[in-house]
Amino acid sequence: MNKKGILIVICGPSGVGKGTICKKFLTKNTDIKLSISATTRSPRAGEEHGVSYYFLDAQKFEDMIEKDEFLEYARVYDNGYGTPKKAVFENLEKGEDVLLEIDIQGAMQVKEKYPDGVFIFILPPSLEELKNRIVKRGSETEESFKKRFGSAFSEISKIENFDYYLVNNDLDKAVGQLESIIMAEKNRVSRYKDCILKKFEEEL
Amino acid sequence: MNKKGILIVICGPSGVGKGTICKKFLTKNTDIKLSISATTRSPRAGEEHGVSYYFLDAQKFEDMIEKDEFLEYARVYDNGYGTPKKAVFENLEKGEDVLLEIDIQGAMQVKEKYPDGVFIFILPPSLEELKNRIVKRGSETEESFKKRFGSAFSEISKIENFDYYLVNNDLDKAVGQLESIIMAEKNRVSRYKDCILKKFEEEL
């Protein structure tokens, strides 16, 4: 059976530990491709084009929006960020799974354009614990803390738009659950029904 | 979060190895309850009431149909077989997962009465291999072989009514995939959305 890859979309409130889960998951599952975003902001020290981001100028970014070449995009202050469709779709067609770590607004745009994605929301063990984690990062001003933490509950209330949730209590457990979700999706009838029936029809 | 258990419905053509997969799965996952069927046929040597089957007389069986006390039932020649709702639902309410190994007609009845079940179809690696397995059992007459094998493709073509499929090529792999499916379902948002939102609302 020639199977299409799965688009895995990981989302969750700021500070919940999405990045840590994704990193460990990708280290253990090296066949899964991480999607690389495009941005108009300047590269920071150590950032490489095509590795950290695709660095684009503003004109190219606007052109890509115009041509519907983004799976999702956003403008944050003066900078544009987006996920180019091309690389993602090429990998999926080749049967490779692609992971997208993204914010909720982005995830909702992806869902509209590619509902076959698997949409996963990472939850904190509690709001109290989320607060502690944001504070521990230490990089937050009072204002940005309030902004991040204030939006956490409203983000969680959008969970009904997602297929799965994970509670980030124990990292290994969360990564194991993520692996199970992907394995289960590879056994989902609606995804591969045509392949299955074709295979058995050919035998008749 | 006080979570309801999951009803796991396992189905597949005759000879595919459902029983072997279920047995190994239950041995490894002792917290999962196997549903016990009711039947009007007489106990065979070694069969125990409440363990192998609930043995009922024909009148009691008809009464239970009348009172809609079966999740599914069928009459095969002179005997009745069915899955009593009560024990299944009591376990699910207690948060315990219940496994039901059943034929396709039965699975479709269960789906109608309890669409929250997880419906899993076991596929053979190929029709040729299924044929070999039925022959190897050796217990088949020519006629019963034709009947069993003849219905295999028409059963497989009903796979679209199922949530997941498993290919029974390698027993351990199939059992591992079954475990992943159940773990994934325990992280499904649509199943536990209300619990999740309630938990975080209480913290506000």
Question: Which tags fit this structure?
Answer:
homodimer; 204 residues; alpha/beta; Rossmann fold; Guanylate Kinase phosphate binding domain; five-stranded parallel β-sheet; four-stranded mixed β-sheet; 8 helices; 9 strands; 47% helix; 19% strand
Task: Give a verbal description of the structure.
- Two copies of one chain form a homodimer.
- Chain A has 204 residues and is of the alpha/beta class.
- Chain A folds into two domains: 1-32 and 97-204, P-loop containing nucleotide triphosphate hydrolases (Rossmann fold); 36-96, Guanylate Kinase phosphate binding domain (2-Layer Sandwich).
- Chain A is 47% helix and 19% strand.
- Chain A has helices at residues 18-28, 58-66, 85-93, 104-113, 127-137, 142-156, 171-185, 189-203, and strands at 7-11, 33-34, 38-39, 54-55, 70-76, 79-84, 98-101, 118-123, 164-167.
- In chain A, the strands form two sheets. Chain A has a five-stranded parallel sheet with strand order 2-7-1-8-9, with helices on both faces.
- The first copy, chain A, is globular, with a radius of gyration of 18 Å.
- The interface between A and B is medium-sized, with 34 and 34 residues.
State the helical fraction of chain A. Answer: 40-55%
Average pLDDT, all residues of chain A? 92
Oligomer: homodimer
Low-confidence stretches of chain A: none
Number of strands of chain A: 9
Topology:
The structure is a homodimer of 204-residue chains.
Chain A: E1 7-11, H1 18-28, E2 33-34, E3 38-39, E4 54-55, H2 58-66, E5 70-76, E6 79-84, H3 85-93, E7 98-101, H4 104-113, E8 118-123, H5 127-137, H6 142-156, E9 164-167, H7 171-185, H8 189-203
Parallel strand pairs in A: 1-7, 1-8, 2-7, 3-4, 8-9
Antiparallel strand pairs in A: 3-6, 5-6
